[in-house]
Amino acid sequence: MRIHILGICGTFMGGLALLARELGIEVEGSDAQVYPPMSTQLQAAGITLKEGYEPAHLQPAPDLVVVGNALSRGNPAVEYILDQGLPYVSGPQWLAQTLLHERHVLAVSGTHGKTTTTSMLAWILESAGLAPGFLIGGVAQDFGISARAGGGRYFVIEADEYDSAFFDKRSKFIHYCPDTLVINNIEFDHADIFRDLEDIRRQFNHLIRIVPGRGQILARAGDAEIDAVLERGCWTPLARFGVEQGDWQARLLSADGSAFAVSRAGEVQADVCWSLLGSHNVENGLAAIAAAAHVGVEPAAACEALSRFQGVRRRLEQYACIRDITLYDDFAHHPTAIRATLGALRRRVGAARVIAILEPRSNTMKLGVHKDELAASLADADAILIYQPSGLDWDLSAVTTALADRCQILTDTESLIDAAAELAGPGDHVVIMSNGGFEGLHGRLASRLQLEMEND
Fold first, then answer.
1. Which residues pair with 248 in a beta bridge?
2. Judgement on whether residues 72 and 218 belong to the same structural domain of the protein
3. Which residues contact 191 (CB under 8 A, 6 or more apart)?
4. Domain CATH for 258
5. pTM over 0.85, yes/no
6. Which residues are annotated as a binding site for ATP?
7. What is the largest CA-CA distance in the chain?
8. Mean pLDDT of all residues in the chain?
9. Is 296 inside any structural domain?
10. What per-residue confidence (pLDDT) applies to 453?
């Protein structure tokens, strides 16, 4: 069988490509933009990538076209599929029908923390010898890949609330029919898909309705939106997790979140000492421990596995240190995630200077939905550089006004690199935050700093 995946370089669709290849299916795909880390994963797996959405890429006709949710009517490839009557399916539906229907599915949902928690959970099950399959919206350092079919009974999946395809506006996670469900948090996001928070609540309510009575729902304690959804009905055993609240509790042993103790129903289980930062990651870890316990992994074993957990690429990932300037790559693109990332780093580095470089790239950010929260989310940075792309629908000047002389707005990445190189000095920590490739800014800034060091 030969399939063609449209939007193959997205983290989800790229993961599907890896799974299909592992199952012995011939795979190729197209995308408008090709950039690491997904492009390098796919190329390493021998999967052919085609730039753009030309109808010619679908000739000769594949047996099936798997359509990513970034594509819509008017796209040349979509129109060709419909005109030619080619068989097509959404990514989530293909995954459910091909792989998930015969597995115990552990799904991690929520506005924030899905990728990290999914990676932690997969690593815990791997360490326990359960050989799980997984599909993660990023590259877990411990695995070096974002997806695999696995050889055991269990499949761990990042359960995204984003829509499935142009012809299926249900959230992706509806297709997964999880047996174990984690709900990390619920906030408004994906403003290009959802009109308001009520739209998102409705999708989570639909998800809760399909978790079987023999399953388990794990919800973060103290989240008013999760509580509001659960009040609409819950037919599955429920446990809550949180820092010093809930059935599963974490007690910080270090203010920066690098060590914490885990208890269950008031009984201390074990400690975790790891390289990650922030109370948000402590909650992510606690969720993963609780979910693993549902499939029989002892909490002490899970804590030991997390103490060896290496993290996820692009989640406050230190990728270079040049002239004693530490550079980080971070995926944060929502004010809550930005605040958590910078706050965690601040608690780790103390009084050292933190420079934040932000690309407001997500559809929600481009629409200006969170513009009133953005300045406050950057409060822990000493200096802020914000890229203003041409497609931004709102004026960033309000952010600069709130942050005064700490903030600069730049309209091209070359100027951004110039400003960052001029600002950064020994001992500084520079965090680049974007959910895209950012025109290769990460590597370009590192090269610039390296060149300046060599020329000193």
1. 241, 264
2. no
3. 363, 364, 367, 369
4. 3.40.1190.10
5. no
6. 110-116
7. 66
8. 90
9. yes
10. 75
CATH number for the domain spanning 24: value is 3.40.50.720
413: left (phi over 0), alpha (psi -120 to 50) or beta: alpha
Q: What are the tens digits of pLDDT across the range 200-217?
A: 999 999 999 999 999 999
Q: Of all residues in the chain, what percent carry a pLDDT higher than 70?
A: 97
**Distance of CA 133 to CAs 18, 105, 192, Å?**
12, 9, 31
Is the pLDDT score of 192 beyond 80? no
Please give the annotated binding residues, written as ranges: 110-116
Residue that finishes a domain, picked among 282, 307, 332: 307
Q: What is the pLDDT of residues 354-383, one digit of tens each?
A: 999 988 877 667 666 667 778 888 888 999
Residue 127 CB neighbours (<10 A): 18
Query: Among 307, 335, 367, where does a domain finish?
Result: 307
Cα 219–chain centre separation: 18
Residues 303 and 337 reside in one and the same domain: no
Q: How would you class 454 by CB atoms within 10 Å of its CB: exposed for 0-12, middle for 13-18, buried for 19 or more?
A: exposed
Instruction: Give residue 32's domain range.
Output: 2-92
Residue 321, φ and ψ in degrees, nearest 5: -140, 110
Structure confidence at residue 7 (pLDDT): 95
Rounded to an integer, what distance in angstroms lies between the CA atom of residue 48 and that of residue 68? 17
Window from 237-251, 257-271, 351-365 with minimum mean pLDDT? 351-365
Q: What is the DSSP string of 248-263?
A: EEEEESSTTSSEEEEE
- pLDDT tens sequence across 78-134: 999 999 999 999 999 999 999 999 999 999 999 888 999 999 999 999 999 999 999
State the total domains in the chain.
Answer: 3
* Claim to verify: residue 26 and residue 162 sit in the same structural domain: no
Asked if 73 and 106 sit in the same domain, the reply is no
Place of tokens 């000193």: 456
> Do 351 and 298 share a domain, yes or no?
no
Distance of CA 351 to the CA centre of its chain: 29
Residue carrying structure tokens 């706050």: 343
Assigned token pair, 444: 């370009």
Size of the chain in residues: 456
